[in-house]
């Protein structure tokens, strides 16, 4: 049998009673530490509560899973994990493999830092968008950048998990992660992340020395966020109850404000650029086709496509708007080419 037991977020004391009973009677307990560190004192308490064999499980051992699955065929095995056992996708995959191998599984859930963190910051959990991870070796932060963008457009908050390397005892500093996002903005130029963005740094949630610090990125440049682990939250559209709670629960260097309001859809940004450009190009060539009736319908269609693009955008039909301005641009370019003129776009 293979049991997945959550350790909770506050050390040994946060292990559920059922979880303690399960690990105390297990033949083998694997403790994984690659998702979050566990203190030496908590580690000793866990070991003292176990009567069977105790093993510290490296990331590769859990990801490979073969040893754990093989042992589970004949013995009662526990995989003890920080937080809730199924926040880590590796554990879900391991459970699926166990079931496929006819190994009985059991789940004992516990508090997760993700769910606890949102409440500790005073945010509404249903407004959390897609979560992203930032790693130190990432050559580009384009993926988390656009996760933030999409969440902000929807008015949702973005949770950014920062790298923790168990073997190297390395934690990515929030300031380095924010610096990487600002550098990504320079290349993407979508006005998603600037120094005026409001961010929340949640540190050591669940520990006695937990801290929540928030403010503009520019205001946090020199801030010491204390001991890791840290998580960055980029709030989207803040309800007034969220802002009020955040000011009470955390240390706000700046007054909380909405990041979503300044974030504009890429389609809107494109249309602001291309509609005037295509219209100007059309106006330039219209005199060149004066009194040429065979081209009037093409000129008229180009103008209609431009107007359609503006209407579609106003209705929120972004794809249709982009298609329409594209059609208009194609017609205008063809007419310009016929007169030996260069393209405008």
From TrEMBL:
Q: Where is the signal peptide?
A: none
Q: Which top class of enzyme applies to this chain? A: transferase
Gene Ontology MF, one: diphthine synthase activity
Q: Which residues form the DUF357 domain?
A: 273-338
According to the lineage, what is the superkingdom?
A: Archaea
Pathway listed: Protein modification; peptidyl-diphthamide biosynthesis
The EC number(s) this enzyme carries: 2.1.1.98
Q: Pfam families, alphabetically?
A: DUF357, TP_methylase
A GO BP entry: protein histidyl modification to diphthamide
Protein name according to UniProt: Diphthine synthase
Q: What is the protein's species of origin?
A: Candidatus Nitrosomarinus catalinensis
